[in-house]
Write a structure and sequence with these properties.
The complex is a heterotrimer of chains A (371), B (412) and C (292). Chain A is mostly helical and 371 residues long. Chain A has 19 helices and 2 strands. Chain A has helices at 2-9, 15-32, 35-58, 69-84, 90-112, 117-137, 139-142, 160-183, 185-195, 197-202, 207-233, 243-256, 263-281, 285-299, 303-319, 328-332, 335-347, 357-362, 364-370, and strands spanning 148-149, 235-236. Chain A is globular. Chain B has 412 residues and is α/β, with parallel strands linked by helices. Chain B has a 7-stranded mixed beta sheet with strand order 7-6-8-9-10-14-15, sandwiched between helices. In chain B, strands 2-1-3-4-5 form a 5-stranded parallel beta sheet, sandwiched between helices. Chain B has a 3-stranded antiparallel beta sheet with strand order 11-12-13, with helices on both faces. The radius of gyration of chain C is 19 Å and the shape is globular. In chain C, strands 1-2 form a two-stranded antiparallel ribbon. Classes of the chains: A mainly alpha (371), B alpha/beta (412), C mainly alpha (292).
Chain lengths: 371, 412, 292
């Protein structure tokens, strides 16, 4: 843990400049890139935020959040309905969306946290499917199967570049907030619960309350992502609440690496971009996605960012053992590493780290002995 | 009989009008040449079960393009790119955006999915991009949600409901039962059927209604319930795989022998062929295209060419694809420019010759005025599957909701 | 709500429950013995239906063609399952469940497109054997003979499963492995072969479910989506890994679905989900004892 803390301090001085440069690059995109790439960029940010919000409960919380798409859908419908049915200003709707999704997260989470693992996941799918059925069947309000289209937005958001800038700034702030949550004492407790719920229970942590709060927060961020999707596409569909989309978000987290902060964003970017370009050349896109998924599980079980982080750490420790960590993680872009450092530090690097809660239950005894 | 004769008169009149129009265009001087090829962006479902329809429409479109490009459109050709929306409106909308922003297509065409069609329609309106819907049957597309930039070259639930309502009313039924699959299309077509039935036959009564969930495996209890209630006629609101299920169960129960039943597209060979001898005889159906009727030279030529190219007869989506290509080509010939607004002006009220006779793009709602064929399923020695017999042609103008209906639906 | 409607709804609920039971029993067995939440179980069900179609149509009109299909299709599916297990899945048993879910999801995506490559997107349909065509009237309700056949097959499969797990050596070992696989391994039994066999049985049941459903419905791509989510919900409310739980869950699921349609047709799709929610709130690990 000491070395992890040391790694932390060293690059932080260089960070603000790097972040500013990154922010400037992201915001300058509409001026340089062709419109379609601006659109893709916005979509990547929206899906990235959605995947990152799932990762708060999945990667950091170790919960079987199987139906995260519901909160995304609730956020999107909340914005769409406040504009089209209530006639409220879009700005109000954008604030209402995460709140509505968080409320849905609380209503679903309060029941789910009483269960564990697959039971948790299946109860969530059932409860989420009830909301999906409402979106699908309550025709007079939600537009049923057809959804709601051509949702009017105020002038600054009406152009693609306007929508992009708004999405970039909002997701930037949201990522910052997520980062703070992960780094807060609450985040640390959440990860401790993931790694060993029994031990946390024994030392007096209210496991369920922490998990519920994580679900509510994650749902809120997912709802925000849903609202941003509406800002970008001006449409909502009931399929946003269907379990298939939830599995896709899951894949994004895995692909990028669910024990890293930036992993979900990277995974979302890969899926969105691959889908946009593979879709042009083949109708067998799911064959490609399935093959990637299988290969990944065999050869890169910690996802891309997990893999890259691991490689860089290995190289750094092999080269200059004394100063390890200073060069490596810095190059990856800081956020990637420290969670792995935390989790890895707790569970013993390499072997135990791949396992959040589920394996922790099985291997609880062994891990307890090791710690 | 009167209907057929009127159709003939219309056809002759239309043919003459077309000839005059072409002659007039010839007189107007040398045609200008387009500066580049016309690029059509197609978003449709090419994976999953609905791919049957998506591929059929695309084949019809390609067949027409082969002819059109041989002579060219004002010296240019029509090119196209396709995108697979995988029956998902999110993906469809994203693909449409890519086609417009990146591929820079001149117009969009698609799709079987009503939700996708409506989503792309809203996007097309905002982009001022022409969008021609060719399979999706939602009446909202050219009805309540219609606008300047969206067109439809296929029949919709309003037209089908009206045609079936009139055909059944003529048979003198008064006690109706409604049975439908509980999803968007089931509701839309059933509502439309009942709305028009009450309009054309005010003394019609509703004996009862039955709804079942989409993808219901076993329909026996529902159909038994209806048989026991003994209404004079049943209208079923279902399509695709659900329709195949209804037909199979009807055969198992000997349904049609006891209660007459009507379903839009029940006489579609895409539905009847996979069922083979398993389909029931005596079911009423409507459809806007049959490859074996009318036995006109135009239709036979189209079917021969299609069969030679793709090894099977064209279905209704192929017909939609075929006429969509011709509408596009004719509209550009008339507009004489790639300008989108002029293309739309040219497409409004455009009348083209098709395998089923002349078809007009109605200016008030941008809906192609298609005749519908009403028939009853029957075994024949000619085919291995059931086909429609006793076919009656219901002329396009009779099946269309009025322009006043459209204005009301749009809240104008 | 009249009595005939209720009776016929109950009958349809029951015959649907039999298909659901056969499929979810396979899922539950794999879940119990191997601890693998097999998401591509639904794809195997779909594959079973397509193979049954191919066999039945290749054999042509003969009265026995569907019987041959019912025998052959599950075997083909089981063989496909075994290949996947031996080549890929067997290397992943040490991974956590989330990884296994994602892996099997990946296989599901691949299998779906392979089925599409092999059979194309058209709807298919199979004729029941002549002896099972038509309907008989039971208590004023017309019931197709094929549904009565399904009502007989379901209990037969349940009985066969009971004999397998309680009266055969491998079956007993599989049951023991479900409870404590380390202990079984310590006893010197080759757990890997038990796993392979258990997976084979699970896949066989998926294929059997698909072949049995073939004559009652349109065989289409996408039929895996509906069944897999239902099967997972069923094994959850039944108790993970408990095949009798799968039976109870299937009955509950099939009947709530059918009767729900009489009560509130517009929102009938929510009834099974509601049933799952209620069961899990009252009994958080399912109705019967879970091996998890």
């Amino acid at each position: 843990m000491l070395t992890a803390a040391a790694q932390e301090r060293a690059p932080s001085a260089r960070r603000p400049a790097a972040w500013l440069a990154l922010a400037a690059a992201v915001l300058a995109a509409p001026a340089v890139l062709p419109p379609f790439y601006v659109y893709l960029g916005a979509l990547v940010l929206v899906m990235g935020l959605l995947a990152a919000s799932l990762n708060l409960v999945l990667g950091y919380g170790g919960l079987y959040q199987f139906h995260h798409g519901v909160f995304y859908g609730v956020g999107a419908y909340a914005l769409a309905l406040t504009i089209t049915r209530l006639g409220w200003p879009a700005w109000v709707g954008i604030l209402v969306a995460p709140l509505a999704a968080a409320a849905a997260g609380w209503a679903i989470g309060v029941f789910c946290v009483r269960l564990t693992r697959l039971y948790f996941g299946m109860l969530q799918i059932s409860l989420g499917s009830l909301l999906w059925a409402v979106a699908l069947r309550w025709y007079p309000v939600t537009g049923g199967d057809n959804g709601i289209h051509g949702i009017p937005l105020p002038a600054p958001l009406h152009t693609l570049s306007g929508a992009y800038v708004f999405i970039a700034v909002t997701t930037g702030l949201a990522f910052g907030a997520l980062w703070c949550i992960v780094r807060s004492p609450f985040g640390a407790t959440l990860q401790a619960i993931r790694d060993n719920p029994q031990r946390c229970q024994v030392v007096g942590i209210d496991v369920r309350a922490h998990q519920l709060l994580a679900i509510v927060l994650a749902a809120g961020f997912a709802g925000l992502a849903g609202a941003l999707y509406v800002v970008l596409e001006r449409s909502v569909f009931p399929t946003m609440l269907f379990w298939v989309l939830s599995l896709e978000i899951f894949v994004m987290c895995l692909l990028g690496g669910w024990f890293t902060f930036s992993g979900p964003l990277v995974g979302a970017a890969l899926i969105v971009v691959l889908r946009a370009f593979a879709g042009r050349h083949t109708e067998y896109w799911t064959l490609i996605l399935g093959t990637i998924l299988i290969l990944l599980i065999f050869f890169m079980p910690e996802g891309i960012m997990g893999f890259v982080g691991e490689r860089l750490r290995l190289r750094a420790s092999g080269g200059a053992a004394a100063r390890r960590g200073v060069a490596g993680p810095d190059a990856v872009g800081g956020p990637a590493r420290d969670v792995t450092a935390d989790a890895g530090g707790a569970a013993g690097s390499g072997t135990g780290r791949g396992a959040p809660a589920p394996a922790a239950d099985d291997a609880g005894g062994a891990e307890g002995a090791r710690g | 009989m009167g209907q057929v004769r009127r159709g003939l008169v219309l056809a002759v009149a239309a043919g003459t009008a077309l000839a005059v129009a072409v002659a007039a265009a010839g007189v107007a001087g040398p045609a200008p040449r387009l500066e580049r090829n016309i690029k059509v962006g197609i978003v449709d479902t090419y994976s999953g079960p609905p791919a049957v329809f998506g591929n059929d429409a695309l084949n019809g479109f390609k067949l027409a393009l082969a002819d059109i490009n041989r002579e060219g459109v004002l010296g240019a050709k029509i090119e196209f790119v396709t995108r697979d929306e995988r029956f998902s409106p999110e993906i469809g909308l994203s693909m449409a955006r890519e086609l417009v922003l990146q591929e820079r297509v001149d117009l969009l065409v698609g799709t079987i999915n009503s939700a996708t069609a409506l989503a792309i329609s809203a996007f097309a309106r905002e982009q001022r991009m022409p969008f021609i819907v060719w399979i999706s049957k939602s009446e909202a597309i050219t009805g309540a949600k219609g606008h300047r930039y969206v067109f439809s070259t296929g029949e919709n639930t309003a037209m089908a409901g009206k045609a079936l309502a009139e055909a059944l009313a003529k048979k003198g039924y008064t006690r109706y039962w409604l049975g439908a699959e509980d999803y968007e299309y089931g509701h839309a077509i059933t509502n439309s059927f009942w709305r028009f039935t009450k309009r054309v036959k005010p003394d019609a009564t509703l004996a009862g209604q039955t709804w079942w969930r989409l993808g219901e495996i076993d329909l026996v209890p529902y159909l038994t319930q209806i048989m026991q209630a003994r209404p004079e006629v049943v209208f079923f609101g279902t399509g695709g795989a659900g329709m195949a299920n209804v037909l199979r169960t009807m055969r198992v129960l000997g349904f049609a022998a006891r209660v007459p039943a009507a379903i839009h597209t029940a006489i579609d060979h895409a539905v009847l062929r996979p069922l083979g001898p398993n389909a029931p005889e005596g079911v009423f159906g409507t459809i806007d295209y049959l490859f074996y009727y009318p036995e006109s030279p135009a239709n036979q030529a189209f079917v021969r060419a299609f069969q030679a190219a793709y090894g099977g007869p064209p279905g209704f989506p192929a017909f939609h694809g075929y006429i969509t290509a011709h509408f596009i080509a004719e509209a550009y010939r008339k507009a004489r420019t790639l300008d989108r607004e002029k293309f739309i002006d040219a497409l409004e009220g455009l009348r083209i010759a098709t395998p089923v006779g002349p078809v007009e793009m109605r200016p008030c709602d941008h809906q192609a005025v298609l005749p519908l064929f009403f028939g009853v399923t029957k075994k024949t020695p000619q085919f291995e599957f059931l086909v429609a017999s006793d076919i009656v042609t219901i002329p396009g103008p009779e099946v269309m909701p009025t322009c006043d209906d459209i204005r009301r639906a749009r809240g104008q | 709500m009249d009595l005939t409607a209720l009776t016929s709804q109950l009958l349809v609920g029951l015959s649907r429950a039999m298909i659901l039971f056969i499929v979810s029993a396979g899922l539950s067995f794999v879940l119990g013995v191997l601890r693998v939440p097999n998401v591509f179980h639904g794809s195997l069900y779909m594959l079973g239906a397509f193979v049954a179609w191919t066999v039945a149509t290749r054999l042509g009109e003969g009265p026995g063609s569907l019987w041959v299909a019912l025998l052959l299709a599950p075997l083909v599916v089981a063989a496909v399952g075994l290949v996947i297990e031996r080549t890929l899945l067997a290397r992943l048993y040490q991974r956590e469940h989330l990884m296994l879910i994602l892996f099997t999801f990946g296989v599901m995506l691949v299998l779906n497109d392979l089925v599409k490559l092999a059979w194309g997107p058209d709807y298919r349909s199979v004729v029941p054997p002549p002896a099972l065509q038509g309907a008989v009237v039971v208590a004023g309700v017309a019931v197709p003979r094929y549904n009565l056949f399904l009502l007989a097959v379901g209990p037969a499969v349940a009985a066969a499963l009971w004999v397998f797990t309680h009266r055969t050596r491998v079956g007993k070992i599989a049951r023991a492995a479900a409870v404590d696989r380390e202990m079984v391994a310590v006893l010197g039994i080759d757990v890997s072969r038990v796993f392979a066999l258990a997976f084979l049985v699970g896949c066989y049941l998926a294929g059997l479910g698909g072949a049995l459903v073939a004559p009652t419905t349109s065989i289409t791509l996408g039929m895996d989506h509906t069944i897999i989510i239902e099967a997972f919900l069923i094994v959850t409310i039944g108790g993970l890994g408990n095949i009798w739980g799968a039976l109870v869950g299937s009955l509950l699921f099939g009947i709530t679905q059918s009767v729900g349609l009489l009560v509130w047709p517009q929102f009938a799709i929510v009834f099974p989900y509601l049933a799952v929610v209620l069961v899990l709130l009252v009994r958080p690990t399912g109705l019967l004892r879970s091996v998890w």
